[in-house]
Amino acid sequence: MKMPHMTFTRPDVPDAPLPPDIAELVAGFSALIELRRDAASRLPDWPISLDYDPEALAAGRPLLANLDPAVLVRGVCAASGTMLPAMAGLFPPLAPACERLAIGLSRDPGLAERILAALLDASDDRLAPLAASLGLPLEALVFLTRELVAAVLRQAASTLSPLVDDALWQRPSCPVCGGAPDCGMLKEKTEQSEFLIAKAGRLGLHCSLCGHVWRFPRLVCPVCGETDHNKREIFMAAGRERERIHTCSTCGRYLLVLDMVDSGMACDVDLIPIRLVHLDAVAQAKGFAPLVVSAWNRLSG
Description:
By secondary structure, this protein is of the alpha/beta class. It folds into two domains: about 5-20 and about 165-290, FdhE-like fold; about 30-160, no CATH class. The chain contains nine helices and eight strands. The protein has helices spanning about 20-40, 55-60, 70-90, 95-105, 110-120, 125-135, 140-160, 270-275, 275-285, and strands spanning about 5, 180-185, 200-205, 215, 230-235, 240-250, 255-260, 290. The chain starts with a strand and ends in an 11-residue tail after the last strand.
């Protein structure tokens, strides 16, 4: 795999100014992640019993595949009581949307299930009229509801994660909820495997929804499955070589990765994506798109 030396000032790297108010951006979304975790810790126990099927997992079926949206309603409504007022404080422009959604959920018990069904199906056609009925922009409804769902799925993952066997799951989506990864981390190798290379560490992918971390082959693109080393590169910033951008020219996507091999460093994996937003700016200026589009990495308009 190519590992070209990268610095933010060399002419071989496009000029990529950091987003304005970067410190405020990082602080706001870091606080949101903490809020999501706190809300998850306060939710009632996961309300379903799951029949673990190793064969289904080996075949690529996440533990929560085909989840009935009704199962999430109780948790989402419980999370909304604390998260929506707090998000209004963190992001003042969203305060009216937070208030309208909170009122809508309290007045219409069936609203949460309708929103969740459309959200899980990624159906803007079904979400748009629901947003309009609440007087919300579609983007605001998706953002706020996704955060509520993420809190509920995080609570579920705390119960379901021990059921996942990494030996049975080598896929780019989360084995718990099916969510996409928003970052990766390299850690020490603990056993021999055809998927790992000595001294390079093992790659773990972090779910953007439930927060579960699972093992994935290090030399495979998590988007398109490309394995040709001539089409995959790793860029590192001079002086900060542990912070990396893994790119794939086949699909045009990138993944931010933190190398923690032999570092002895303590790391809050949930905060890696927002703390590496400066690398989002560089990767997007080089023409690559993020594996997962988030509220903070939409830097190119």
